[in-house]
Design brief:
The chain is built from 12 helices and 20 strands. It is α/β, with parallel strands linked by helices and 437 residues long. Strand 3, helix 2 and strand 4 form a beta-alpha-beta unit. Bound molecules: iron/sulfur cluster.
Protein backbone atom coordinates (compact mmCIF):
# COMPACT_ATOMS: atom_id res chain seq x y z
CA UNK A 1 0.00 0.00 0.00
CA UNK A 2 1.74 3.08 -1.16
CA UNK A 3 0.73 6.69 -1.57
CA UNK A 4 2.58 8.99 -3.89
CA UNK A 5 3.93 12.36 -2.87
CA UNK A 6 4.32 14.00 0.47
CA UNK A 7 1.72 14.36 3.17
CA UNK A 8 0.73 13.07 6.55
CA UNK A 9 -0.71 9.74 7.54
CA UNK A 10 -2.66 8.47 10.52
CA UNK A 11 -2.87 4.76 11.45
CA UNK A 12 -5.43 3.37 13.88
CA UNK A 13 -4.84 -0.19 15.12
CA UNK A 14 -7.48 -2.49 16.57
CA UNK A 15 -7.20 -6.03 17.86
CA UNK A 16 -4.30 -8.17 18.94
CA UNK A 17 -0.50 -7.73 19.12
CA UNK A 18 -0.14 -9.39 15.73
CA UNK A 19 -2.11 -6.49 14.24
CA UNK A 20 0.23 -4.01 15.95
CA UNK A 21 3.14 -5.59 14.07
CA UNK A 22 1.28 -5.18 10.77
CA UNK A 23 0.59 -1.54 11.62
CA UNK A 24 4.27 -0.94 12.35
CA UNK A 25 5.03 -2.30 8.90
CA UNK A 26 2.39 -0.10 7.29
CA UNK A 27 3.98 2.88 9.08
CA UNK A 28 7.43 1.77 7.85
CA UNK A 29 6.14 1.61 4.28
CA UNK A 30 4.44 5.01 4.42
CA UNK A 31 7.56 6.60 5.96
CA UNK A 32 9.62 5.04 3.20
CA UNK A 33 7.24 6.65 0.70
CA UNK A 34 8.03 10.08 2.12
CA UNK A 35 4.88 10.58 4.22
CA UNK A 36 5.09 11.70 7.81
CA UNK A 37 3.02 10.49 10.75
CA UNK A 38 0.43 12.52 12.60
CA UNK A 39 -1.70 11.64 15.60
CA UNK A 40 -4.46 13.91 14.36
CA UNK A 41 -6.71 12.22 11.77
CA UNK A 42 -8.21 15.58 10.81
CA UNK A 43 -4.79 16.64 9.51
CA UNK A 44 -3.98 13.45 7.58
CA UNK A 45 -3.98 12.90 3.83
CA UNK A 46 -4.03 9.13 4.37
CA UNK A 47 -6.03 7.53 7.17
CA UNK A 48 -5.48 3.79 7.68
CA UNK A 49 -7.64 1.57 9.89
CA UNK A 50 -6.09 -1.81 10.71
CA UNK A 51 -9.17 -3.80 11.69
CA UNK A 52 -9.94 -6.83 13.83
CA UNK A 53 -12.52 -9.44 12.83
CA UNK A 54 -11.95 -11.95 15.61
CA UNK A 55 -15.49 -11.89 17.03
CA UNK A 56 -18.70 -9.97 16.43
CA UNK A 57 -17.86 -7.37 19.08
CA UNK A 58 -14.47 -6.64 17.49
CA UNK A 59 -16.06 -6.27 14.06
CA UNK A 60 -18.60 -3.77 15.40
CA UNK A 61 -15.80 -1.79 17.02
CA UNK A 62 -13.84 -1.76 13.76
CA UNK A 63 -16.82 -0.44 11.78
CA UNK A 64 -17.45 2.18 14.45
CA UNK A 65 -13.86 3.39 14.21
CA UNK A 66 -13.96 3.49 10.40
CA UNK A 67 -17.11 5.64 10.47
CA UNK A 68 -15.73 7.88 13.20
CA UNK A 69 -12.48 8.49 11.33
CA UNK A 70 -14.44 9.14 8.16
CA UNK A 71 -16.16 12.00 9.98
CA UNK A 72 -12.87 13.40 11.25
CA UNK A 73 -10.71 13.18 8.13
CA UNK A 74 -10.38 16.18 5.84
CA UNK A 75 -12.04 16.16 2.43
CA UNK A 76 -9.74 14.87 -0.29
CA UNK A 77 -7.96 12.49 2.06
CA UNK A 78 -7.86 8.70 1.53
CA UNK A 79 -9.49 6.29 3.95
CA UNK A 80 -7.87 2.85 3.74
CA UNK A 81 -9.12 -0.25 5.55
CA UNK A 82 -6.82 -3.21 6.09
CA UNK A 83 -6.42 -6.08 8.59
CA UNK A 84 -8.61 -9.07 9.32
CA UNK A 85 -11.92 -7.46 8.32
CA UNK A 86 -10.48 -6.42 4.99
CA UNK A 87 -9.27 -9.96 4.44
CA UNK A 88 -12.39 -11.72 5.64
CA UNK A 89 -15.12 -9.36 4.42
CA UNK A 90 -13.34 -7.32 1.72
CA UNK A 91 -16.18 -7.47 -0.83
CA UNK A 92 -18.92 -6.75 1.70
CA UNK A 93 -16.96 -3.82 3.12
CA UNK A 94 -16.56 -2.31 -0.31
CA UNK A 95 -20.32 -2.45 -0.86
CA UNK A 96 -21.47 -1.55 2.65
CA UNK A 97 -18.98 1.26 3.32
CA UNK A 98 -18.80 3.50 0.23
CA UNK A 99 -16.92 6.04 2.42
CA UNK A 100 -13.84 3.81 2.24
CA UNK A 101 -11.44 4.59 -0.59
CA UNK A 102 -9.46 1.35 -0.50
CA UNK A 103 -9.74 -2.05 1.13
CA UNK A 104 -6.33 -3.73 1.32
CA UNK A 105 -5.72 -7.36 2.22
CA UNK A 106 -2.49 -9.00 3.20
CA UNK A 107 -0.48 -12.11 2.51
CA UNK A 108 0.69 -11.60 -1.04
CA UNK A 109 2.84 -9.04 -2.73
CA UNK A 110 1.29 -5.78 -3.81
CA UNK A 111 1.75 -5.17 -7.53
CA UNK A 112 3.82 -2.33 -8.89
CA UNK A 113 0.84 -0.66 -10.46
CA UNK A 114 -0.99 -0.83 -7.15
CA UNK A 115 2.05 0.62 -5.43
CA UNK A 116 1.83 3.76 -7.52
CA UNK A 117 -1.49 4.78 -6.06
CA UNK A 118 -4.14 3.89 -3.55
CA UNK A 119 -6.78 2.05 -5.48
CA UNK A 120 -10.41 3.12 -5.16
CA UNK A 121 -12.58 0.18 -4.15
CA UNK A 122 -14.81 0.52 -7.15
CA UNK A 123 -11.98 0.39 -9.69
CA UNK A 124 -9.89 -2.63 -8.86
CA UNK A 125 -9.76 -5.95 -7.07
CA UNK A 126 -8.54 -5.82 -3.49
CA UNK A 127 -4.76 -5.33 -3.48
CA UNK A 128 -2.67 -7.27 -1.00
CA UNK A 129 0.59 -6.65 0.85
CA UNK A 130 3.24 -9.05 2.02
CA UNK A 131 3.09 -7.56 5.49
CA UNK A 132 5.13 -10.34 6.98
CA UNK A 133 8.29 -9.17 5.27
CA UNK A 134 7.86 -5.40 5.04
CA UNK A 135 10.39 -3.20 6.85
CA UNK A 136 9.56 -1.56 10.18
CA UNK A 137 10.93 1.59 11.74
CA UNK A 138 12.94 1.27 15.01
CA UNK A 139 10.67 0.69 17.99
CA UNK A 140 9.38 3.82 19.75
CA UNK A 141 9.21 1.81 22.97
CA UNK A 142 11.78 -0.33 24.78
CA UNK A 143 9.93 -3.44 23.64
CA UNK A 144 8.52 -4.64 20.33
CA UNK A 145 6.41 -7.44 18.94
CA UNK A 146 7.97 -9.53 16.18
CA UNK A 147 5.73 -11.76 14.12
CA UNK A 148 7.58 -14.93 13.07
CA UNK A 149 4.82 -16.60 11.04
CA UNK A 150 1.44 -15.82 9.57
CA UNK A 151 -1.54 -18.16 9.39
CA UNK A 152 -2.25 -21.44 11.14
CA UNK A 153 -2.37 -25.13 10.18
CA UNK A 154 -4.69 -26.16 12.98
CA UNK A 155 -8.46 -26.35 12.79
CA UNK A 156 -9.76 -25.47 16.25
CA UNK A 157 -13.55 -25.73 16.14
CA UNK A 158 -14.26 -22.15 17.26
CA UNK A 159 -11.65 -20.34 15.20
CA UNK A 160 -12.09 -18.63 11.84
CA UNK A 161 -8.51 -17.37 11.62
CA UNK A 162 -7.14 -20.11 9.31
CA UNK A 163 -10.01 -19.42 6.89
CA UNK A 164 -8.86 -15.85 6.24
CA UNK A 165 -5.23 -15.75 7.38
CA UNK A 166 -4.50 -19.00 5.52
CA UNK A 167 -2.07 -21.81 6.28
CA UNK A 168 1.05 -21.14 8.30
CA UNK A 169 3.89 -19.35 6.50
CA UNK A 170 7.04 -19.11 8.59
CA UNK A 171 9.56 -16.38 7.94
CA UNK A 172 13.26 -16.96 7.34
CA UNK A 173 15.26 -16.87 10.55
CA UNK A 174 17.61 -14.34 8.93
CA UNK A 175 14.79 -11.91 8.15
CA UNK A 176 13.46 -12.23 11.72
CA UNK A 177 16.91 -11.53 13.16
CA UNK A 178 17.41 -8.56 10.82
CA UNK A 179 14.08 -7.14 12.02
CA UNK A 180 15.04 -7.71 15.67
CA UNK A 181 18.31 -5.83 15.10
CA UNK A 182 16.62 -2.94 13.34
CA UNK A 183 14.02 -2.52 16.11
CA UNK A 184 16.75 -1.88 18.72
CA UNK A 185 14.37 -2.93 21.50
CA UNK A 186 15.39 -4.26 24.91
CA UNK A 187 12.56 -6.77 24.96
CA UNK A 188 11.37 -8.71 21.93
CA UNK A 189 7.95 -10.33 22.14
CA UNK A 190 7.66 -13.14 19.60
CA UNK A 191 4.15 -13.67 18.26
CA UNK A 192 2.37 -15.87 15.71
CA UNK A 193 -1.00 -17.57 15.56
CA UNK A 194 0.68 -20.80 16.68
CA UNK A 195 4.14 -19.72 17.79
CA UNK A 196 5.62 -23.08 18.86
CA UNK A 197 4.84 -24.50 15.40
CA UNK A 198 7.23 -22.03 13.79
CA UNK A 199 9.02 -23.81 10.93
CA UNK A 200 6.75 -26.84 10.44
CA UNK A 201 5.56 -25.51 7.08
CA UNK A 202 9.18 -25.47 5.85
CA UNK A 203 10.37 -28.98 6.78
CA UNK A 204 13.54 -28.86 4.69
CA UNK A 205 14.97 -25.55 5.94
CA UNK A 206 13.36 -25.17 9.38
CA UNK A 207 11.09 -28.03 10.48
CA UNK A 208 9.40 -28.92 13.78
CA UNK A 209 11.21 -27.55 16.81
CA UNK A 210 12.70 -24.61 14.86
CA UNK A 211 11.33 -22.29 17.56
CA UNK A 212 14.10 -23.49 19.92
CA UNK A 213 17.10 -22.27 17.88
CA UNK A 214 15.09 -19.18 16.93
CA UNK A 215 14.61 -18.20 20.60
CA UNK A 216 18.32 -18.84 21.24
CA UNK A 217 19.28 -16.65 18.28
CA UNK A 218 16.93 -13.81 19.25
CA UNK A 219 18.30 -13.99 22.82
CA UNK A 220 21.70 -13.02 21.51
CA UNK A 221 20.20 -9.82 20.02
CA UNK A 222 17.92 -8.61 22.84
CA UNK A 223 18.14 -8.69 26.63
CA UNK A 224 14.66 -10.12 26.97
CA UNK A 225 12.74 -12.51 24.73
CA UNK A 226 9.12 -13.26 25.53
CA UNK A 227 6.95 -15.82 23.76
CA UNK A 228 3.18 -15.39 23.39
CA UNK A 229 0.60 -18.01 22.37
CA UNK A 230 2.01 -21.51 22.87
CA UNK A 231 -0.18 -24.44 21.87
CA UNK A 232 0.26 -26.86 24.80
CA UNK A 233 1.24 -29.99 22.86
CA UNK A 234 4.16 -28.10 21.31
CA UNK A 235 5.60 -27.06 24.64
CA UNK A 236 8.43 -29.62 24.47
CA UNK A 237 11.08 -30.15 27.15
CA UNK A 238 13.58 -28.45 24.87
CA UNK A 239 11.35 -25.41 24.46
CA UNK A 240 10.72 -25.17 28.20
CA UNK A 241 14.47 -25.35 28.78
CA UNK A 242 15.25 -22.61 26.29
CA UNK A 243 12.53 -20.34 27.73
CA UNK A 244 13.86 -20.91 31.25
CA UNK A 245 17.31 -20.01 29.92
CA UNK A 246 16.13 -16.55 28.81
CA UNK A 247 15.57 -13.64 31.19
CA UNK A 248 11.83 -14.23 30.86
CA UNK A 249 10.50 -17.46 32.42
CA UNK A 250 6.98 -16.65 31.21
CA UNK A 251 4.63 -19.24 29.73
CA UNK A 252 1.58 -18.10 27.80
CA UNK A 253 -0.24 -21.39 27.27
CA UNK A 254 -3.24 -21.40 24.97
CA UNK A 255 -5.34 -24.02 26.85
CA UNK A 256 -8.97 -22.99 25.95
CA UNK A 257 -10.57 -25.64 28.23
CA UNK A 258 -9.64 -28.60 30.46
CA UNK A 259 -12.49 -31.08 29.92
CA UNK A 260 -11.15 -33.78 27.61
CA UNK A 261 -14.44 -34.49 25.75
CA UNK A 262 -15.04 -30.77 25.26
CA UNK A 263 -11.48 -30.20 24.09
CA UNK A 264 -12.00 -32.92 21.49
CA UNK A 265 -15.18 -31.18 20.38
CA UNK A 266 -12.99 -28.09 20.07
CA UNK A 267 -10.63 -30.25 17.94
CA UNK A 268 -7.85 -29.56 20.37
CA UNK A 269 -5.24 -31.54 22.26
CA UNK A 270 -4.79 -32.32 25.96
CA UNK A 271 -6.77 -32.32 29.19
CA UNK A 272 -6.64 -30.66 32.60
CA UNK A 273 -4.44 -33.34 34.22
CA UNK A 274 -1.79 -33.03 31.55
CA UNK A 275 -1.82 -29.27 31.79
CA UNK A 276 -1.49 -29.33 35.58
CA UNK A 277 1.41 -31.80 35.35
CA UNK A 278 3.26 -29.57 32.88
CA UNK A 279 2.70 -26.44 34.96
CA UNK A 280 3.91 -28.14 38.13
CA UNK A 281 7.01 -29.56 36.37
CA UNK A 282 7.97 -26.07 35.24
CA UNK A 283 7.35 -24.56 38.67
CA UNK A 284 9.44 -27.28 40.34
CA UNK A 285 12.42 -26.10 38.25
CA UNK A 286 11.60 -22.37 38.39
CA UNK A 287 9.24 -21.35 41.20
CA UNK A 288 9.19 -17.81 39.80
CA UNK A 289 7.99 -18.98 36.37
CA UNK A 290 4.93 -16.97 35.37
CA UNK A 291 1.90 -18.70 33.88
CA UNK A 292 -0.78 -17.14 31.69
CA UNK A 293 -3.61 -18.82 29.86
CA UNK A 294 -6.97 -18.17 28.29
CA UNK A 295 -10.19 -20.16 28.13
CA UNK A 296 -13.40 -20.18 26.13
CA UNK A 297 -16.56 -20.35 28.18
CA UNK A 298 -19.82 -21.75 26.77
CA UNK A 299 -18.46 -23.70 23.79
CA UNK A 300 -21.33 -25.78 22.32
CA UNK A 301 -21.90 -28.86 24.45
CA UNK A 302 -20.22 -27.44 27.57
CA UNK A 303 -22.03 -29.19 30.43
CA UNK A 304 -22.22 -28.28 34.10
CA UNK A 305 -19.58 -30.97 34.71
CA UNK A 306 -17.27 -29.45 32.09
CA UNK A 307 -17.66 -26.07 33.72
CA UNK A 308 -17.05 -27.54 37.18
CA UNK A 309 -13.85 -29.16 35.86
CA UNK A 310 -12.67 -25.76 34.60
CA UNK A 311 -13.48 -24.09 37.92
CA UNK A 312 -11.52 -26.80 39.76
CA UNK A 313 -8.60 -26.42 37.37
CA UNK A 314 -8.46 -22.65 37.77
CA UNK A 315 -8.39 -23.06 41.55
CA UNK A 316 -5.66 -25.68 41.43
CA UNK A 317 -3.48 -24.25 38.67
CA UNK A 318 -3.19 -20.93 40.50
CA UNK A 319 -2.20 -19.13 37.31
CA UNK A 320 -0.70 -15.66 37.50
CA UNK A 321 -2.83 -14.33 34.65
CA UNK A 322 -5.83 -15.72 32.88
CA UNK A 323 -8.38 -14.47 30.36
CA UNK A 324 -11.88 -15.89 29.86
CA UNK A 325 -13.91 -15.29 26.71
CA UNK A 326 -17.50 -16.15 25.88
CA UNK A 327 -17.86 -18.46 22.91
CA UNK A 328 -18.64 -16.48 19.76
CA UNK A 329 -20.50 -18.35 17.02
CA UNK A 330 -18.48 -17.55 13.92
CA UNK A 331 -19.77 -18.24 10.42
CA UNK A 332 -17.64 -20.79 8.59
CA UNK A 333 -16.27 -22.53 11.68
CA UNK A 334 -16.82 -26.15 12.67
CA UNK A 335 -18.55 -25.06 15.89
CA UNK A 336 -21.13 -22.92 14.09
CA UNK A 337 -23.42 -25.86 13.38
CA UNK A 338 -22.66 -27.90 16.48
CA UNK A 339 -25.58 -28.90 18.67
CA UNK A 340 -25.70 -27.94 22.33
CA UNK A 341 -25.29 -24.16 21.87
CA UNK A 342 -25.15 -22.74 25.41
CA UNK A 343 -27.72 -20.21 26.54
CA UNK A 344 -26.05 -16.75 26.63
CA UNK A 345 -27.28 -16.10 30.19
CA UNK A 346 -25.68 -19.32 31.42
CA UNK A 347 -22.51 -18.43 29.51
CA UNK A 348 -22.38 -15.04 31.21
CA UNK A 349 -22.90 -16.60 34.65
CA UNK A 350 -20.06 -19.05 34.07
CA UNK A 351 -17.85 -16.28 32.73
CA UNK A 352 -18.54 -14.04 35.74
CA UNK A 353 -17.80 -16.86 38.19
CA UNK A 354 -14.46 -17.68 36.56
CA UNK A 355 -13.42 -14.05 36.14
CA UNK A 356 -14.16 -13.26 39.77
CA UNK A 357 -12.24 -16.32 40.92
CA UNK A 358 -9.22 -15.51 38.79
CA UNK A 359 -9.18 -11.85 39.82
CA UNK A 360 -8.84 -13.03 43.43
CA UNK A 361 -6.08 -15.51 42.50
CA UNK A 362 -4.17 -12.88 40.54
CA UNK A 363 -4.51 -10.37 43.38
CA UNK A 364 -3.27 -12.95 45.92
CA UNK A 365 -0.29 -13.86 43.77
CA UNK A 366 0.54 -10.17 43.32
CA UNK A 367 0.26 -9.58 47.09
CA UNK A 368 2.74 -12.42 47.64
CA UNK A 369 5.37 -10.41 45.75
CA UNK A 370 5.44 -7.62 48.35
CA UNK A 371 8.94 -7.38 49.77
CA UNK A 372 10.59 -9.04 46.74
CA UNK A 373 13.31 -7.42 44.64
CA UNK A 374 12.59 -7.57 40.92
CA UNK A 375 14.37 -6.50 37.79
CA UNK A 376 12.21 -4.16 35.70
CA UNK A 377 12.49 -2.73 32.24
CA UNK A 378 11.38 0.91 32.32
CA UNK A 379 8.70 1.20 29.60
CA UNK A 380 7.79 4.82 30.24
CA UNK A 381 8.32 7.39 32.99
CA UNK A 382 7.22 5.82 36.26
CA UNK A 383 6.16 2.49 34.73
CA UNK A 384 8.13 -0.72 34.37
CA UNK A 385 7.67 -4.46 33.92
CA UNK A 386 9.46 -7.49 35.29
CA UNK A 387 9.46 -10.89 33.55
CA UNK A 388 6.02 -11.47 35.11
CA UNK A 389 4.23 -8.82 33.06
CA UNK A 390 3.78 -8.99 29.31
CA UNK A 391 3.35 -5.56 27.72
CA UNK A 392 -0.23 -4.36 27.10
CA UNK A 393 -1.66 -7.62 28.46
CA UNK A 394 -0.76 -7.99 32.15
CA UNK A 395 -0.38 -5.53 35.04
CA UNK A 396 2.50 -3.07 35.42
CA UNK A 397 4.88 -1.96 38.16
CA UNK A 398 4.77 1.70 39.21
CA UNK A 399 8.29 2.93 39.90
CA UNK A 400 10.16 6.13 40.64
CA UNK A 401 9.71 8.43 37.61
CA UNK A 402 13.40 9.37 37.71
CA UNK A 403 14.46 6.07 36.12
CA UNK A 404 15.46 6.39 32.49
CA UNK A 405 13.08 4.90 29.94
CA UNK A 406 14.68 1.83 28.37
CA UNK A 407 16.89 1.05 31.35
CA UNK A 408 16.78 -2.00 33.59
CA UNK A 409 16.54 -1.34 37.33
CA UNK A 410 16.29 -3.50 40.44
CA UNK A 411 13.33 -2.38 42.60
CA UNK A 412 11.61 -3.55 45.76
CA UNK A 413 7.87 -4.28 45.68
CA UNK A 414 6.08 -2.32 48.40
CA UNK A 415 2.40 -2.55 47.55
CA UNK A 416 -0.07 -4.35 45.32
CA UNK A 417 -3.11 -2.71 43.73
CA UNK A 418 -4.92 -5.66 42.20
CA UNK A 419 -2.92 -6.56 39.08
CA UNK A 420 -0.51 -3.63 39.44
CA UNK A 421 2.42 -3.30 41.85
CA UNK A 422 4.14 -0.32 43.41
CA UNK A 423 7.89 -0.47 43.91
CA UNK A 424 10.51 1.70 45.54
CA UNK A 425 14.22 2.16 45.07
CA UNK A 426 16.11 1.40 41.96
CA UNK A 427 19.63 0.23 41.43
CA UNK A 428 21.15 -0.54 38.10
CA UNK A 429 21.60 -4.33 37.99
CA UNK A 430 25.21 -5.62 37.93
CA UNK A 431 26.51 -2.43 39.48
CA UNK A 432 26.54 -2.76 43.25
CA UNK A 433 28.01 0.69 43.70
CA UNK A 434 25.09 2.39 42.00
CA UNK A 435 23.26 4.69 44.37
CA UNK A 436 19.82 3.59 45.43
CA UNK A 437 17.23 6.10 44.24
S1 LIG B 1 -4.21 -22.63 16.99
FE1 LIG B 1 -6.43 -22.85 16.87
S2 LIG B 1 -7.19 -20.98 17.89
FE2 LIG B 1 -5.07 -20.58 17.37
S3 LIG B 1 -5.17 -19.57 15.34
FE3 LIG B 1 -4.85 -21.77 15.01
S4 LIG B 1 -6.92 -22.58 14.67
FE4 LIG B 1 -7.15 -20.57 15.67
Amino acid sequence: MTAQGSGRFYVETLGCPKNQVDSDKIVGTLLHDGLSPTDDPSAAEVVVVNTCAFIEEARKESIGVILQLNELRPSGSRLVVTGCMAERYGDELAVELPEVDAVVGFGGAITEQQQRRLIPVSEAPMPTMDLLNLQRPPSQRPWAYVKVAEGCNRSCGFCAIPSFRGSQRSRDTDSILAEVQSLQAKEIVLVAQDLASYGIDRPDELGAGAIVPLVRAVSTEAERVRLLYLYPSDLTDELVEVILGTQVPYFDLSLQHVSKPLLRRMRRWGDGDRFLKRISEIRSVRPDATMRSNFIVGYPGETDDDHAALVEFVEEADLDWCGFFSFSREVGTYAYDLDGQVDPRLMNERLAELTEMQDAITARRRDALIGEHVNVLVDERGVGRSHREAPEIDGVIHIDPSHAVGSFVEVKIEEAWGPDLVAVGGTIPDDDDEESL
